[in-house]
Structure prediction request, 131 residues.
Amino acid sequence: MAAVRVLLDTHALLWWLFDDPKLSSAARSVIVSPGNEIVVSAASAWEIATKHRLGRLPEAGDVAVRLPHYLRRARFAVLAISLEHAQAAGALPGPHKDPFDRMLVAQARIEDLAVATVDGVFRDYGVAVIW
Prediction:
């Protein structure tokens, strides 16, 4: 199989870090394959920190504080949010209101990344999904 570049949705990242069985076998296989580039958006750091602060991710306290450490250890690349990403996320059509998902959709489309996610909304925007 050819190497792929995959953006992890925030839940997929957390399920990987916590070794949660909710992470699909297809996503797990792609993540462990040494030829693939696994990418984490800065938007996921923002989402984890925000949801932890609001009490919606109480188990993610250490990850919220030490995410760069976890990403380096896992050898995941970090995708910064560019002006182009921000413009594209803001301009996306449709009713989907989650700003984190909208950013990941925009980044996946601009950077030509598949997304590891259980969330079907990504397919609605023409993004390749691995799950």
